[in-house]
Amino acid sequence: MLTMFNVLPCFMFVFCLIFVKSGLSYKNYPPECLAVDDTVGQAKDQQFNAILECMVFELDLSTVDVIWYKENRRTLEKEKIKENYKFALKHKEELYTLTIKNVQGNDYGDYYCTVKNKYGKNQVLITLFETMECQGTDCPNY
């Protein structure tokens, strides 16, 4: 017999993850993640920021590590992103955000939101691409 014990909010997603309890023991799985937008556009060289968002689905978020990576275009290796003058990392409940400040041409490319716990890991790809005008809610009104 399967009993539903926790349903995470769906927001605007096509599906929700439903965690189930089987008998007296819990099933243990790697956390799941989903990009709010799998592509994000922003104009370069104009002091605009790009915001990448990842939803993490796990019953106990304190047991999850969320790590952002950028794929190096030349080597195709994933480079871990740390908070600094260029990147801001935030999270509120299950929403994890990477802000890329003052987007430049070398910022375009593939970013990965990686989530892991003791049972395994998952990741989602988000691509940052160039646009001609500012994108997002923080754009100036001309």
TrEMBL record:
Ig-like domain span: 31-127
Q: Which InterPro entries match?
A: Ig-like_dom, Ig-like_dom_sf, Ig-like_fold, Ig_I-set, Ig_sub
Which residue positions does the secretion signal occupy? 1-25
For this protein, the record's Pfam families field holds: I-set
What keywords were assigned to this record? Signal
Please give the Gene3D superfamilies that the UniProt record associates with this protein: Immunoglobulins (2.60.40.10)
Specify the protein name.
Ig-like domain-containing protein
Q: Which organism is it from?
A: Mytilus galloprovincialis (Mediterranean mussel)
